[in-house]
Structure of Roadblock/LAMTOR2 domain-containing protein:
Amino acid sequence: MKILTNLLKNYNDERLVRTTASLNEINPIVDRIMEDDSVEGVIMANNEGEPILTNMHLMNATAYSLAMHRLGVMVQNCVKEVDPFDEVMVLRVNTKKVEIMTAPHKDFCIIIVQHSRSKVKEKPK
């Protein structure tokens, strides 16, 4: 995972990155996710939707994180209108090419981009 130090805007972003990096050393959840053949990338975005930790190309990570942040805010608002005591835990979007899953949190969100179930990326020979 690349830590995008030039995008870290404040102490909270740095704290999130350091905490995540130290947790991954102890409990490599992201590594297990990345071992799946269908996973293209994992993005950790701050509360503004900007990527702060990723293994994807920066342009793609930024596009995915900003779009999913906006969508997550809209979905969260819709859910709160229906039931003020409910909240979104995971948002999953399927397209023809990719499946995007995001787990929003008030300080950050984790986004996983993977190939659609019908299309699995090929392993290098």
In short: The chain has one domain: 2-115. The chain has a mean pLDDT of 79. The CA atoms of residues 74 and 102 lie 13 Å apart.
